[in-house]
Amino acid sequence: MNRISALFDIQYPIVQGGMIWCSGWELASAVSNAGGLGLLGSGSMYPEILREQIIRCKAATDRPFGVNVPLLYPNIEEHIATIIEHKIPIVFTSAGNPKSYTARLKAKGIKVVHVVSSRKFALKAQDAGVDAVVAEGFEAGGHNGREETTTLCLVPAVRQAVQIPVIAAGGIGSGKAMLAVRILGADGVQIGSRFIATPESSAHEAFKSMILNAEEGDTKLTLKELTPVRLLNNPFYQEIVRHYENHASPEELAELLGRGRAKKGMFEGDLEHGELEVGQVSSMIRAIQPAGDVVREIWQEYQHELNNLQRLT
Predict the structure, then answer these.
(1) What is the 3-state secondary structure (H, E, C) of the chain?
(2) 220-226 — which CB contacts under 8 Å span 24+ positions?
(3) Residues of the chain with CATH 3.20.20.70
(4) How far is residue 156's CA from residue 76's CA, in Å, rounded to a whole number?
(5) CA separation (Å) from 85 to 42, 47, 75, 122?
(6) Between the CA atoms of 204, 206, 207 and 212, what dihedral angle is there, to the nearest 10 degrees?
(7) What is the Cα–Cα distance from 97 to 100, expressed in whole angstroms?
(8) What tens-digit pLDDT sequence spans the chain (313 residues)?
(9) How far apart are CA 193 and CA 280, in angstroms?
(10) What is the b/e burial string over 32-41, where b = at least 16 CB atoms within 10 angstroms of the residue's CB?
(11) CATH value of 11-202 in 3.40.50.10470, 3.40.47.10, 3.20.20.140, 3.20.20.70
């Protein structure tokens, strides 16, 4: 049996990324019910909201689901306590030191996965005792690695470095892409952008529509002085460009970013003043599809292409 499917007790080694403002109980439960692993994106949730989302997700699926926890989140202790209280079986951590909570979560029988952008951090995560790592390449939407290593280069490097299962992420939106990273050594895939463009996603409809119209080059990696993030090119991004042209300091960039930009864009649909986080694969997304259909389509295409490859050899 596939190592990721066995680790999470799921049918297909397909994980839905726990994206802020997009990954609520409706999306997570739909992906889990379809045989993948749904994740709640706790980074955009107050503690009471996460608690409510967990309860609703449990009511909507009897399959395993998890929670994505950015370790820089200000209410992290409350989130960890809620996860333990509600016996969530799987936690994905990111944006911080994997040693912070891995031992505590694993002591409660929780599987822990950490998101990494380099071979070095993959080794640190393995040393911290995580059960698997997500090797997320430069193509991914949202917060990204400073190294700017593409998925094609990152996955084999991480596979060579660690013994634990590796989940590939960044630029994956099809069964063909899934087969490619499996050949490179990944045990499974994590997909974010493709799941934003689903009815179950909590992203604003205006944001979803903008994704459907995205072309090559319409996403940009920026704000490396603060924390690198990949955004759609909109008036807010153009304002960032003007700040760079005027040699803005990191403090001035932080002031421009302010608070609530991601919520304003992704959740409230302000396409001018909001932050619109999505990956390069957005240029290939042309339809809103139910999350379950996305899971099945990716898996069926993966199997079809795998059979074709076997016939070629």
Answers:
(1) CCHHHHHHCCCCCEEECCCCCCCCHHHHHHHHHCCCEEEEEHHHCCHHHHHHHHHHHHHHCCCCEEEEEECCCCCHHHHHHHHHHCCCCEEEEECCCHHHCHHHHHHCCCEEEEEECCHHHHHHHHHCCCCEEEEECCCCCEECCCCCCCHHHHHHHHHHHCCCCEEEECCCCCHHHHHHHHHCCCCEEEECHHHHCCCCCCCCHHHHHHHHCCCCCCEEEECCCCCCEEEECCHHHHHHHHHHHCCCCHHHHHHHHCCCHHHHHHHCCCCCCCCCECCHHHHHCCCCCCHHHHHHHHHHHHHHHHHHHHHHC
(2) 221/138, 221/144, 221/148, 223/253, 223/257, 224/146, 225/250, 225/253, 226/250, 226/253, 226/254, 226/257
(3) 11-202
(4) 32
(5) 15, 13, 16, 29
(6) 130
(7) 6
(8) 799 999 999 999 999 999 999 999 999 999 999 999 999 999 999 999 999 999 999 999 999 999 999 998 888 999 999 999 999 999 999 988 999 999 999 999 999 999 999 999 999 999 999 999 999 999 999 988 888 899 999 999 999 999 999 999 999 999 999 999 999 999 999 999 999 999 999 999 999 999 999 999 999 999 988 889 999 999 999 999 999 999 999 999 999 988 789 999 999 999 999 999 999 999 999 999 999 999 999 999 999 999 998 777 6
(9) 9
(10) bbbbbbbbbb
(11) 3.20.20.70
- Count of residues for the chain? 313
Please state the pTM of the whole predicted model: 0.96
Instruction: Work out whether strand 229-232 and strand 142-143 pair parallel, antiparallel, or are unpaired.
Output: antiparallel
